[in-house]
Amino acid sequence: MPEVKLNVKLIRHTLSPEEVVALGARLCYSRLTVDGLTERVSREDQTAFVEKILGMGHDSVLEHASFTFGVEGVSRVLLAQLTRHRLASFSVQSQRYVSYAKGFGYVVPPRIEALGEEAVQEYHRQMAQLHAWYTAWQERLGTGEGSNEDARFVLPGACETRLMMTMNVRELRHFFSLRMCSRAQWEIRALATEMHRLCMEVAPALFADAGPGCLRGACPEGAKSCGRALEIRAERKRLLAEMAE
Predict the structure, then answer these.
(1) Paired residues of 8 in beta bridges
(2) What is the pLDDT of residue 1?
């Protein structure tokens, strides 16, 4: 049974998402026809206008653009957190229809890895034992989805899952504000960070200031703040400078 690592792919996204957002915003305040607005938006750089929209808090127009990701190498523990983001669409590998008789991938938490090789090997042995219990229940319960659906109850939270998810830009920015925060759980923070990197490659104007709340003002965590706001802002400035080169 292999240890797995996070792998995120940007599968699809709205064509020219910054233009689509700008078109939605301009339509609200313009007498031009849709054709006239589309032509105007397509021939002009919309970066400054999109930044103005974000600064005004005109967030509804962000819902016109969406991004779809393929994700693997993540745990069922992460999945439980991820599906709390309700304004998103998810398709998840089923533990009912997919059998793990030949083994399952699993995530090893960094803090366990930090304990050293002996601790990691103990963790691997525990995963092997859980798999043995799983296959034993499969044998006792028979074959097919009926067997899988009850045998899966002994599978660990560490068990790998694969999924596809779609979020619009408004929800993505909300997701990044919560899950890129240093107080977020390490696995979903790693996922959010990689998703943000992929979004920045496509539509930097929409995501340049996306991330933990301390990028845009006071830390929303209050007394639970990590106290790293200045460091986090400096890291983002370095990222933007590197992208501009």
Answers:
(1) 71
(2) 65
Q: Rounded to whole angstroms, how far apart are CA atoms 64 and 84?
A: 22
For 144-176, the pLDDT digits (tens) are 778 999 999 999 999 999 999 999 999 999 999
Strand order in the sheet with 7-13: 7-13, 66-75, 160-168, 88-92
What is the pTM (predicted TM-score) of this model?
0.94
Q: Rounded to an integer, what distance in angstroms lies between the CA atom of residue 36 and that of residue 137?
A: 65
Do residues 114 and 196 lie in contact, with contact meaning Cβ atoms separated by under 8 Å?
no
What is the rounded distance in angstroms from the CA atom of residue 35 to the CA atom of residue 38? 5
The C-alpha atoms of residue 187 and residue 110 are separated, in whole angstroms, by 9
Average pLDDT over residues 22-34: 91
pLDDT tens-place string over residues 231-242: 999 999 998 988
Q: What single letter denotes the amino acid at residue 202?
A: V
179 part of the active site:
yes
- Of the listed 31, 179, 183, 197, which one is catalytic? 179
Residue 8's nearest CA partner among 194, 185, 178, 165 is 194
pLDDT by residue (tens digit) across 119-134? 999 999 999 999 999 9
Cβ 179 vs Cβ 191: under 8 Å: yes
